[in-house]
C-alpha cells in the first residue's frame, strides 16, 4: 500500500475515533453537566473516575496499536502516532461543536486529559498542538528519500529539543491541576510556558527538516 493511501486510512480511523470520543463526552456531560459544562468541576464518583481514566488509557493504546500496525519501523510508527493523535483530537473538538455547539470560543477552558492529573487549558492550546502534530508528522513521513539514508536517524540534541518542548507544553496543561481538583475555576492559562514549549520543540523540528533536506539533496 502506498504511503498516501495508508495515510488516508489512518486519517479515516482517526476521524471515526474523534467522533466516538465526542459522543462519549456528550453522554458524560448530559449526566454530570445537564446545564452545560463549566468550572468548578463536578466531582466524579471514584468508580466512574476510574472508568474514565481507563477509557482514556485505552484510547491511547488504540492509537498506538494502529500506528504500529501501519508502520514499517519504529520511526514511522512514531510519526503515525503523532498524525493519528492530531487528527483524532481535531475531529473530537469538531464533533463536540457539531453535537453541542461547544466550545463557544477557542478561548473556552476545557479538561483535556486525566492521566496522571487533570490537564486544563483553553481549547485553542490543544488545537495548536494537534495542528502542529499533523503538519510535522506529514512533513517527515513524506520526506521518503530521507528514510534509511545515512544520517537519517534523529540526533540526541534533536530528540532532547523535542522532549523538552513537549514537557514544557505538558507543564502548561498540568501546573494548575491541584487548584482545579480543589474545586476552583480554571486559572489563567500560562501561554508563556506553552509558547516556550512550542518554540523549543519547533527549533528541534526545524533542525531535523533542514538536515533531512540536506541528505536528500546530496543523493
Shape: globular
What fraction of residues sit in β-strands? Answer: under 5%
Estimate the helix proportion, in percent.
55-70%
Instruction: Say how many strands there are.
Output: 2
Radius of gyration: 19 Å
Strand arrangement in the largest pleated sheet: 1-2
Mean of residue pLDDT values: 92
Number of domains: 1
The SSE order reads HHHEEHHHH
Taking the alpha carbons of the first and last residues, their distance comes to 25 Å
Q: Could you give a short account of the major beta sheet?
A: 2 strands, antiparallel
User: What structural class do you assign from the helix and strand content?
Assistant: mainly alpha
Give unreliable regions as ranges. none
Question: How many distinct helices?
Answer: 7
Task: Describe the protein.
The protein has 219 residues and is mainly alpha-helical. It has one domain. Helix 4 packs parallel to helix 7. 26% of the residues are buried.
Compose a concise summary of this entry.
By secondary structure, this protein is mainly alpha-helical. A two-stranded antiparallel ribbon has the order 1-2. Helices cover 69% and strands 4% of the residues.
